[in-house]
Each structure stands twice: as structure tokens, then as C-alpha cells.
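Quick one:
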Amino acid sequence: MNRALSYITLGSAVLAATTLVGCNSTDDVSTNSILSNLTPELMGLDERPVDIKSHMAVTGNVDLRLFWGDLGRATYIDHPSRLSPYPIVYTSGQPR
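Output:
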């Protein structure tokens, strides 16, 4: 009798906890919802939205720095004039 009473008490406690707390989810977990977007955390084939944003930021930064080098070469101000009759000392350390 004591064992049956403990099982009934335990079952009632589990039922009360399940009823009070529940297993409800605010997300739609239906089959149609899952099948419509199998990889919700990915934006590309292998990247999350935050990965794509950081990649675009790095690419934009590199492009901007390359722009200034391209502009110097296009306007011929990336190196000193070679018209001097004296030897030119390059202080950048890069040979010309």
C-alpha cells in the first residue's frame, strides 16, 4: 500500500509539474515550418549572417586601402620623380 501511494504521489507531482511548466515553445516547430527552411541559421551555403557581414566589412576595408594605392599609381604620385640628376634615396625600404 505504501509503494502504491508513493507511485501515485510521484505521478501526481510529475503531472502537476508538466501542467504548470509545460513544454510549450514560441517557435513554430511544425513539419511545414521545418521543411520550408532546413537551415535557418545559415544565410549562404556555409556562412551565418554575422559571418557574411564580417567578410563584407573586411573586403570593404581592403578595397578602400587598395583604392588609395591605385589612385597614387594612376596620378603618378606613388614614387618620386626620376627627372632629378642626383641619385634618389628611397626611404621606404622597397627597391624600385
